[in-house]
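chain below, 245 aa
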Amino acid sequence: MTPVAPLITSFLREHMPIERGYSPHTCGTYAHAFRLLFIFASKRLGIRPSGLCIEQIDAALILAFLAHIEEQRGNSAATRNGRLAAIKAFFHYVEFGVPSALAQARQIHAIPGKRHDRALIRHLTKDEVRAIIDAPDITTRLGIRDRAMLHLCFAGGLRVSELVGLPLENLSLQRTPSIRVLGKGRKERCLPLWKATTADLRAWLAVRGQVPVPELFVNAQGDTMTRAGFEYVLDKHARTCWVAH
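prediction:
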């Protein structure tokens, strides 16, 4: 039997923040998901959380846990799927450290997400927008970029294509900060910037460095940020927010 304690400790303290570069906020939301799981498993199996073994966290127990958080805690299908995503990420990590758990991990990965209705158009509340903007870890270069990029996108109401294609030279941070945006039909508009948005953009410019492309926002390799790249960033931080609920 393989104790869970050292595995989950290294997953949350080393693998996620250091090897994968997840923000403290994301690590915290994953830790909360595992706290709920281990409390449930402890009560179900009649042992202390510190005594749990990886072999006991099988697909049947996880399915029971997912039913529990929906029925007893009132979690939505989206939140349920977020908890499951955290568990699957952990078992991806376990596969490399505990080869004997490969079959068990395979069964867990096969647990499907729960389908739920989604509105075709859903407007975010002010608090939801703020939560997404605050999600990136601004102690890292990419976290500073993500916050500035998300803040500008929301504050300026930019299309993704407008955001990722925005040239650095179209940004002015002088007396009246603004950006010039080239939209559909090559129509240009000039947008004033909020003080908070300006502050985030200044922070990004301070760490952006010398890159060979003219766009304001670049990826980790210093190349132009793509639409898919931005969608990944947005999904990552939005998922962090709703997993925490």
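Residues 24-45 form the longest helix (22 residues). The two ends are 33 Å apart (CA to CA).
thats it, cya
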